[in-house]
Design goal:
This protein is α+β, with helices and mostly antiparallel strands. It is built from nine helices and four strands. Helix 3 runs antiparallel to helix 9 and helix 4 packs antiparallel against helix 7.
């Protein structure tokens, strides 16, 4: 415990030397300012995209889910048939040159529809599970914003496999943690400093 107080993180909370406290505050102020300056644009992007993702259903970024003929799975076409229909609709109604590689298939049992989302572009389709009818073609802007928010867009632009995203989220996560710690000490440190100065003056 003695070593932890002397050399570890708890030392900051128990040290009484005002010169040391002032030194730590200056150091934290410098670090806090540098992180904020160099990563300002990234924090700005994260805050804006995070806000938009939170309100995506209210702002029209996410298309409303359509309703199919039947919610009984026994009435539905096979997933293979629905997938082939989705690719046909994509090439026939949007662009015949678009990639048909699927990213995910989102079945909504309570609505009787299935959503098809693709890997290499942001077009999405909603298809009736029972009839196979195309219900909606949507531009999934919310997926684009999500990719910008978590850095996945970097992998798509650079052709890397999650490497850019992992590096981006690691840097931003550590930076946000450091801003939290330094920001707290910039608020709390001066209070301790004033308190200890008063104590030293009384002594």
């Amino acid at each position: 415990m003695k070593g932890l107080l002397k050399n570890g993180p708890l030392y900051l909370f128990f040290m009484t030397n005002t010169k040391q406290q002032a030194k730590w505050i200056r150091g934290f102020r410098w670090l806090h300012r540098k992180i904020a300056i160099f990563l300002f644009i990234f924090f700005f992007i994260i805050s804006i995209t995070g806000f938009l993702l939170g309100w995506k259903k209210k702002t029209g970024l996410l298309a409303p889910t359509q309703k199919g003929v039947s919610t009984n799975p026994g009435d539905w076409l096979s997933l293979d048939s629905l997938s082939k229909l989705a690719v046909h609709y994509l090439h026939d109604s949007v662009d015949p040159n678009l990639s048909k590689e699927l990213d995910r298939i989102d079945i909504r049992p309570s609505k009787g529809i299935v959503k098809f989302v693709f890997v290499d572009h942001y077009w999405g389709l909603q298809v009736d599970c029972t009839t196979g009818k195309l219900l909606l073609i949507e531009k999934r802007n919310s997926d684009l914003i999500e990719d910008i928010h978590d850095g996945t867009i970097l992998d798509k632009l650079c052709g890397t496999d999650e490497k850019s995203m992992l590096g981006y989220t690691t840097v931003m996560g550590i930076s946000l943690f450091m801003l939290t710690i330094t920001g707290f000490w910039l608020w709390y440190g001066p209070k301790r400093l004033r308190k200890n100065k008063k104590k030293e003056n009384k002594d």
